[in-house]
């Protein structure tokens, strides 16, 4: 997706970014799974030590990794734009669907969120991206595929100046919906240009943030970094932060979730479609269909760390569902069975967690014990039981293990030469706490190691010979308690690292055939085993590494001008807040007064203009 040069055009009294949309063939998704660029430069010998021990030591060295390159990606719309309003009103009338006004209200948040980001990310290697809506040019013909479209532009931003990133400010790039949307399908299906053109005609224009977020995975990897922080314009970075507050090459993206607040699967579509709960229930249902039935934590409503290659992989794995999401041109407007909206942020987070869990179980069951024969006979199953800590009898009970993973974070980052997420002065630099790292396996609590672990041999391993792939499928999806407890028991086996999961060393080279992954869908039959299962497993586990962390945040949803004023005064008094979200819940009759309170506070908080503000 080549971006068009940002030449501004005045139409009426508003400035737009004119562009020619892609050809129908360009709306088809690239179905090639993408590598994680930073991992490619780490030698296999170093990765083996890192994954097996959890320590960045010889042959790993400083300089092999750097602070993560992270781009900020905003999803933004100017709901007061006259052409956007005209298009929205026409579609709303045609569909007889009335969306909530708050979804499109504009308080100039983007300007100040970007000013805040400039202050918070000084020193980062970053580019800023703004995904905005677009409309058909009023003078466009009705028969040409190359109809000129007008991309919405922040009216206060000189977009030609911003592209250059003057005086050390990150470049600002505009992407428009029609440039970003791509048709995905179920893995293995073949789609045509005609399919793409038909689909696009049903989904553009889009006035649904769920639909637009569903296309984040299709941002051009030649333009956008592997690591992104996805923001809405009502989200603010309140203090300076190191990149590791969101991503590090060693530990992966930092997910912020409410571990005690779980979302169960719901395929009924009965939940409120105007908010997020219908999409959350549907997304949790889809995850359970693929990875096993469980409730999954809700994501905090603040800037989210995401891996673009892994989001793209997820969009391929759930392709038909991502294609269905934009059929809701307004939130909740399309309710056909099986075509509900996905919640991309929720799914992208839990996809990484589940793929790492899957990698752990594959490595131990298929790679280590199944080996090239791929059969687990009675003797091998006895060996597996002993490695889990079992002896005679059918039951195994273990208490919480002692692990050093959390204690090693600071020294590992220092040795690698990257900045730690912890702050020595949280009043000056924002502090981020890692409270779970995937180097400790998998936590069904999504918070810490299990206080105790119990396994029944007859239920989880069984005595009869079976294919290693069949056991892997069973404990990965059908009996997730067994899979969770196998991982927990193996974590007891050593104080650090994941060596116990890994197959034995091999001198066979890994073929250079692209990223290391397991199948996007769980097949009934095992795919061919790598010539070097250990190196395969190490790369697989590294690909899906992640952190669950936390930073001090402040979420407010004022409904009136007076409440807005009081909440913002309280925010000024509160020190050490790293992330903030101001959600517009203003009641009718309060919007104008509350808008003034907000704008005044924004200007006091971030008075220094960006380069290229006009």
From TrEMBL:
Domain called Stealth protein CR1 conserved region: residue spans: 70-94
Keyword Cytoplasm annotated: no
GO CC terms in record: Golgi apparatus
Key word Transferase present: yes
UniProt-recorded name of the protein: Stealth protein CR3 conserved region 3 domain-containing protein
Chain spans, region Disordered: 401-425
Pfam families: Stealth_CR1, Stealth_CR3
Superkingdom, natural source: Eukaryota
A GO molecular function held by the record: UDP-N-acetylglucosamine-lysosomal-enzyme N-acetylglucosaminephosphotransferase activity
Stealth protein CR3 conserved region domain span: 300-354
Biological-process GO terms, alphabetical: carbohydrate phosphorylation
Assigned keywords, A-Z: Transferase
UniProt lineage: Eukaryota, Fungi, Dikarya, Basidiomycota, Agaricomycotina
Signal peptide start-end: none
Organism whose genome encodes this protein: Mycena maculata
